[in-house]
Amino acid sequence: MKIRTRNQAGDKIETQMAPMIDVVFQLLIFFMLTLKIIEPEGDFDINMPLGAPQTSSVTDADLPPFKVRLQADPDNRELALLTYNGQPLGNGANAFLRLNSEILKSVNALRAAGPGNLDKQEVEIDPDYGLQYKNIISAISACSGKMVDGKMVRYISRIKFAPIREKE
């Protein structure tokens, strides 16, 4: 590399590309080596309802679905009550922990009844219109399983939504 001591009139300063390309490749290698690959979140098997509710819903499940009801407060924003198969579990973050433990109890009972039953079991989530999505996602997460030592322990993989309730 030639070092110039002073710029004379009419001398053109050239941009040297080789050092710039070297730095770009070093940055590229640095970011490739420091990239942490994580499992994608939200890998759920969810059946969304169609626009209009059907008169009868035909499923291949022999078992009735577990019913999770999310009721909104009067402002239709925050969670007022979470119920599981008609049993009230309260509201807030603790309600989703209780839902997770209730689902685990039901899953353990299904496993005891027979190994094929768990694959057929569904959870039906019935949220109020306008409820914040964070509550619905928390319910889906509580029903699907639990993270134990960085690994997902799957409870239920078949989750569907009840027909849309009209805004009250």
Labels describing this entry:
168 residues; alpha/beta; 6-stranded mixed beta sheet; two-stranded antiparallel ribbon; 4 helices
Mean of residue pLDDT values:
79
- Beta-strand proportion: 15-25%
- Say how many strands there are: 8
> Percent helix among the residues?
25-40%
SSE run = HEEEEHHEHEEE
Radius of gyration: 27 Å
Q: Characterize the largest beta sheet: strand count, sense, and whether it forms a barrel.
A: 6 strands, mixed
List the strand order in the largest sheet: 1-8-5-2-3-4
Q: How widely separated are the two ends?
A: 76 Å
What structural category characterises the helix and strand content? alpha/beta
Describe this entry's structure for a reader.
By secondary structure, this protein is α/β, with parallel strands linked by helices. The protein is 33% helix and 23% strand. It has helices at 17-34, 93-113, 117-120, 133-144, and strands spanning 45-47, 66-72, 79-84, 87-90, 122-127, 145-148, 151-154, 158-161. The strands form two sheets. A six-stranded mixed beta sheet has the order 1-8-5-2-3-4, covered by helices on one side. Strands 6-7 form a two-stranded antiparallel sheet. The protein is elongated and about 85 Å long. The N and C termini lie far apart (76 Å).
